[in-house]
Amino acid sequence: MRAAIPSLERLADVLGLVRLRRIISRSGQVGTYSYEVHGAGCLFVSDNGIEIDVDFATDGSEIFDLWRLRWYGLSLPEPLDVTDQDLLSAVRSLHPLLTEVRPGWFSVAG
């Protein structure tokens, strides 16, 4: 019996495809982004070096912490380097667009 191929309706579905090992590899290229699956998440790097690293919650939603947000800022063409306190204040000011799903980890609401 053949295993069903998971959908690609959510970004988190890439983890299922990697776990099947015959569908896609742990790293590769998709359009202008390279990707590397790690643990419970994936790092995407654009052709101009911008890094977007997310983990996936058990429901498949994308989540990030301040460390991932900091690396995103530092990878921008004009790097942004801010303190953890400034990052935390900025993220919390975006409530209810962003919600804290567990201490220090955030997700886009809805």
Give the structure's gist in a few sentences.
With 110 residues, the protein is an alpha+beta fold.
Based on DSSP secondary structure assignment, what is the total number of beta strands? 7
Structural class: alpha+beta
Count of separate DSSP helical elements? 3
Q: What gross morphology would you assign? A: globular
Mean pLDDT: 84
Strand content: 25-35%
Low-confidence stretches: 1-7
C-alpha-based Rg, rounded: 15 Å
**Widest sheet, order of strands:** 1-2-3-4-5-7-6
Tally of distinct domains = 1
Largest sheet: 7 strands, antiparallel
Topology, pairings included?
Elements: H1 13-19, E1 27-30, E2 33-38, E3 41-46, E4 51-56, E5 62-65, H2 66-75, H3 84-93, E6 98-102, E7 105-108
Antiparallel strand pairs: 1-2, 2-3, 3-4, 4-5, 5-7, 6-7
Describe this structure in words.
This protein is an alpha+beta fold. The chain has one domain (13-108). The chain has three helices and seven strands, in the order αβββββααββ. The protein has a seven-stranded antiparallel sheet. Residues 1-7 have low confidence and may be disordered.
